[in-house]
Amino acid sequence: MRAKICKIFLLLLIFIFLLSLISCKNSQDKAIIADLEEELADCKGQQTTEVKGGEKQEETAETLAEEIGINFTPVIEKDLYVQGQTRFTFVLNNYLYTGGQGLSIFDITDQANPNLVGTINNDWVTGLYVDGDYAYINYSNWDSKTNMSKSGFKVIDVTNKENPTEVADLNMDGNIYNIATLNNYIFISYGIYGQQESETGIKIVDMTDKTNPSFIKNIAVRRYGGGPFCIAGKSGYFLDSGNLKIIDLKDPANANVDENYPLSLSANEIVVNGNYFYFVMANTLQIIDLSDSNLEIIGGVFGRGYTQGIAIEEDYACLSYKVSDSNDENWIIKESGLQIIDLSDKTQPSIVTKIDIPGEAAEVFIKDNYAYVAAGQNGVQIVKLFDE
């Protein structure tokens, strides 16, 4: 009898143990389900933020600001009038250079009260770069006699900001996309389009004598659709019809394409910052790790409208954009703005916030805590990005 009671007691213990296991398992399942529901809610909240904006957007922006270490609260500090259609901005030291209908120079020691100090010529500027005491401006026009576009760049001595002086004018066929400088050399990304044959590439100009620049090298690519070019260190990066060409610039006079990577993607803007290559295709920013020999895309973010310009500083980027539509005769700009992108995690870049820009946002330049956005007829919008 005693043995029978012991067996019953043992079975009862086993039953209680099994019940506890089941209860524990249910608790774990509930915890897992709760975690999944929370993650799903977070995802839905982020999607709601991107679509609806408002209070939710501010909460997400604050969260991202904590991750990047900066509380972005962009505000237009100054609506700066500039003659003509301003398309380009460049900042060096305490001076802002703007390109539109000619070149204008502003003293921006006080960003809230810029002071115009000098201007020169009335050419329609298609590109702007400043290096030391010289500004380089691209220009283009259509030659009705040859039915081809003509381009060139001018060298402007800006040593005396109140009296900038043109010291050289170098003409060339085709269109200039952009220029970059390295020591005493200028690198020009160009495209020539004709009925029979097209050519894109990089022209290298010796600028040892600023008053007498001379072509010393042409890296030609016979392919339609040349594109942007930039320099980082002793290497040049040229994106041509989806092919990323890396050019060794240690000896500019003998520069050639060192490596070629087919990306099957085009881009309207490219930037190299540190070990990362950033390129924008329409409204999508994508990132490549240059330290990876495969040059695979490691991250990206889908932005608004059509990206007009990109500038990067530290772990964030500013992208200017516009949203446009057409009626029977003209294109209408429906929205124009500046987006701030968190780049602290290159695999998951995120839009922190945005600010509306009056006019038509074009190129943008970042200097310290300010973004200088070229805004067409609305001149330059000086945006304070965050509170120091």
Descriptive report:
The chain has 388 residues and is an alpha+beta fold. It has a domain at 54-83 and 273-388: YVTN repeat-like/Quinoprotein amine dehydrogenase (Methylamine Dehydrogenase, Chain H, 7 Propeller), CATH 2.130.10. Residues 1-65 have low confidence and may be disordered. It has helices at 2-52, 54-68, and strands at 72-80, 88-92, 95-107, 115-131, 134-143, 148-157, 165-173, 175-182, 185-193, 198-206, 214-221, 229-232, 235-240, 243-248, 256-262, 269-273, 276-281, 284-289, 297-302, 306-313, 316-326, 331-342, 350-356, 364-367, 370-374, 380-386. Helix 1 packs across helix 2.
Provide key terms for this protein.
388 residues, alpha+beta, Methylamine Dehydrogenase, Chain H, six-stranded antiparallel beta sheet, four-stranded antiparallel beta sheet, 2 helices, 53% strand, disordered N terminus
Q: Roughly what is the average pLDDT, rounded to an integer?
A: 80
In total, the number of strands is 26
Distance between the termini: 85 Å
CATH class of the domain at 54-83 and 273-388: Mainly Beta
CATH topology of the domain at 54-83 and 273-388: Methylamine Dehydrogenase, Chain H
